[in-house]
């Protein structure tokens, strides 16, 4: 059968779209470049929203990207079950678009944080984490300024109660995120947001590990089985 | 032509490290008696017409849709 097609949306100010596309390719799928101003998802089987500073992060991170023409299509498709992974800025966009609960605010320490981060994958049942086992520890880079995950107490209790915290920071909470949350999913599990960067940990030459590849192989396997 | 101000603030329960950093600096500058600082955003929205109820309703919608993130921020609209 043909390889799964995974779209990567480029916004003005996206930085990690090429790394995300490369990770998709290494996982065995065909990356499809999508442009924010288009209004056609080109029939892709899944979408990655990459890291960066879409629209300069003006107003708030992700606040303007949310209204890109392609995002309107993506919101409908995601509600219909299309697998979507938002990494860093992509996570911020998904929260602003209300596809994921909560919000990402400036790091509690006020500094831009860039380092290799140990994480625990708590939910290995999502479209993007099935190649991990629940409780598995991984190391991937984190690099952000607005990475502090916040949600109101009811939402937080719901996320914890329903096991929707996808990944948590270990050792040290780099940004003051509530409950050490590094990533969450929607109710259906097709939409995942993650602040650290698995696409930067897919080859030993350039990454601290290849631990990030699992996010991309998870989606490829799911699409092949579907 | 009217000018409408939209003040956007983090909700009280949300940590504001920027405000805290400002507050920590004040004693070093010799300013006493400030117990806390919260930092927000002010938008000035210029209207083509008067700031009547319909126009203010639209500004409120703008505030809810774009200027503020209702998940973590509250806003106030007033005519300048």
Automatic annotation (TrEMBL), chain A:
One of its GO terms (biological process) is 'de novo' IMP biosynthetic process. The active site is at residues 88, 197, 199. GO terms for molecular function: ATP binding; glutaminase activity; phosphoribosylformylglycinamidine synthase activity. InterPro entries: Class_I_gatase-like, PRibForGlyAmidine_synth_PurQ. The keyword Hydrolase applies. CDD domains: GATase1_FGAR_AT. Pathway: Purine metabolism; IMP biosynthesis via de novo pathway; 5-amino-1-(5-phospho-D-ribosyl)imidazole from N(2)-formyl-N(1)-(5-phospho-D-ribosyl)glycinamide: step 1/2. GO terms for cellular component: cytoplasm. Its EC number is 6.3.5.3, 3.5.1.2. It comes from the Bacteria. Keywords: ATP-binding, Cytoplasm, Glutamine amidotransferase, Hydrolase, Ligase, Nucleotide-binding, Purine biosynthesis. PANTHER family: PHOSPHORIBOSYLFORMYLGLYCINAMIDINE SYNTHASE SUBUNIT PURQ. Part of the phosphoribosylformylglycinamidine synthase complex involved in the purines biosynthetic pathway. Catalyzes the ATP-dependent conversion of formylglycinamide ribonucleotide (FGAR) and glutamine to yield formylglycinamidine ribonucleotide (FGAM) and glutamate. The FGAM synthase complex is composed of three subunits. PurQ produces an ammonia molecule by converting glutamine to glutamate. PurL transfers the ammonia molecule to FGAR to form FGAM in an ATP-dependent manner. Part of the FGAM synthase complex composed of 1 PurL, 1 PurQ and 2 PurS subunits. This is Phosphoribosylformylglycinamidine synthase subunit PurQ. It comes from Actinomadura rayongensis. The gene is purQ.
From TrEMBL, chain B:
GO terms for molecular function: ATP binding; phosphoribosylformylglycinamidine synthase activity. One of its GO terms (biological process) is 'de novo' IMP biosynthetic process. SUPFAM superfamilies: PurS-like (SSF82697). It is found in: Cytoplasm. Keywords: ATP-binding, Cytoplasm, Ligase, Nucleotide-binding, Purine biosynthesis. InterPro entries: PurS, PurS-like_sf. Its EC number is 6.3.5.3. Pfam families: PurS. It catalyses: N(2)-formyl-N(1)-(5-phospho-beta-D-ribosyl)glycinamide + L-glutamine + ATP + H2O = 2-formamido-N(1)-(5-O-phospho-beta-D-ribosyl)acetamidine + L-glutamate + ADP + phosphate + H(+). Pathway: Purine metabolism; IMP biosynthesis via de novo pathway; 5-amino-1-(5-phospho-D-ribosyl)imidazole from N(2)-formyl-N(1)-(5-phospho-D-ribosyl)glycinamide: step 1/2. One of its GO terms (cellular component) is cytoplasm. Part of the phosphoribosylformylglycinamidine synthase complex involved in the purines biosynthetic pathway. Catalyzes the ATP-dependent conversion of formylglycinamide ribonucleotide (FGAR) and glutamine to yield formylglycinamidine ribonucleotide (FGAM) and glutamate. The FGAM synthase complex is composed of three subunits. PurQ produces an ammonia molecule by converting glutamine to glutamate. PurL transfers the ammonia molecule to FGAR to form FGAM in an ATP-dependent manner. Belongs to the PurS family. Part of the FGAM synthase complex composed of 1 PurL, 1 PurQ and 2 PurS subunits. This is Phosphoribosylformylglycinamidine synthase subunit PurS. It comes from Actinomadura rayongensis. The lineage of its organism: Bacteria, Bacillati, Actinomycetota, Actinomycetes, Streptosporangiales.
């Amino acid at each position: 059968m043909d390889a799964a097609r995974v779209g990567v949306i480029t916004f003005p100010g996206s930085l990690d779209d090429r790394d995300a596309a490369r990770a998709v390719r290494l996982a065995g799928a065909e990356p499809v470049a999508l442009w924010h101003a288009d209004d056609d998802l080109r029939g892709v089987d899944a979408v990655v929203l990459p890291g960066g500073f879409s629209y300069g992060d003006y107003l708030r991170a992700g606040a303007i990207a949310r209204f890109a023409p392609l995002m309107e299509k993506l919101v409908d498709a995601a509600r219909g079950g299309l697998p979507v992974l938002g990494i860093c800025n992509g996570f911020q966009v998904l929260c602003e678009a209300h596809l994921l609960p909560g919000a990402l605010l400036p790091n509690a320490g006020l500094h831009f944080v860039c380092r290799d981060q140990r994480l625990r994958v708590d939910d290995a049942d999502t479209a993007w984490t099935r190649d991990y086992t629940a409780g598995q520890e991984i190391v991937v880079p984190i690099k952000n300024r607005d990475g502090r995950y916040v949600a109101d107490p009811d939402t937080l209790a719901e996320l914890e109660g329903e096991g929707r915290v996808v990944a948590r920071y270990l050792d040290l909470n780099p940004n003051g995120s509530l409950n050490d949350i590094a990533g969450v999913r929607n109710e259906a599990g097709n939409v995942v947001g993650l602040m650290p960067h698995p696409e930067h940990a897919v080859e030993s030459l350039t990454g601290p590990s290849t631990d990030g590849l699992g996010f991309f192989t998870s989606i490829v396997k799911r699409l092949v089985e579907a | 032509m009217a000018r409408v101000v939209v003040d956007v603030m983090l909700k009280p329960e949300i940590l504001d490290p920027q405000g805290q950093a400002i507050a920590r600096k004040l004693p070093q500058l010799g300013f006493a008696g400030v117990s806390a600082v919260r930092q927000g955003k002010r938008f000035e929205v210029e209207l083509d017409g008067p700031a009547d109820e319909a126009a203010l309703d639209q500004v409120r919608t703008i505030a809810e849709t774009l200027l503020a993130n209702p998940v973590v921020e509250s806003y106030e609209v007033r005519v300048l």
